[in-house]
Design brief:
single chain, alpha+beta, 2 helices, about 40% helix, globular
């Protein structure tokens, strides 16, 4: 499962219809989002998220369910 964060919302990309290529396709979609970010193409990102949520290959997830790895300041020792 690959997560993508945009405008204070987190989405997971879920591809299930490409067999053994599901993970590869999820990564391709994520890479496309990152490329759009790099060139400032915010409208394409919004359109793809809207379409992905509509067609079910993207799902908005609750940010309280995301576990971030600890940073140096969060470590006990």
């Amino acid at each position: 499962m690959i997560q993508y964060r945009f405008e204070r919302k987190t989405y997971k990309i879920i591809i299930t219809d490409e067999g053994d290529r599901n993970e590869i396709r999820e990564q391709q979609i994520y890479d496309d989002f990152k490329y759009c970010e790099s060139i400032g193409d915010w409208q394409t990102i919004k359109n793809r998220i809207r379409g992905g949520v509509h067609w079910g290959w993207m799902v908005e997830i609750d940010d309280t369910m995301i576990i971030e790895p600890p940073t140096e300041k969060d470590k006990f020792w």
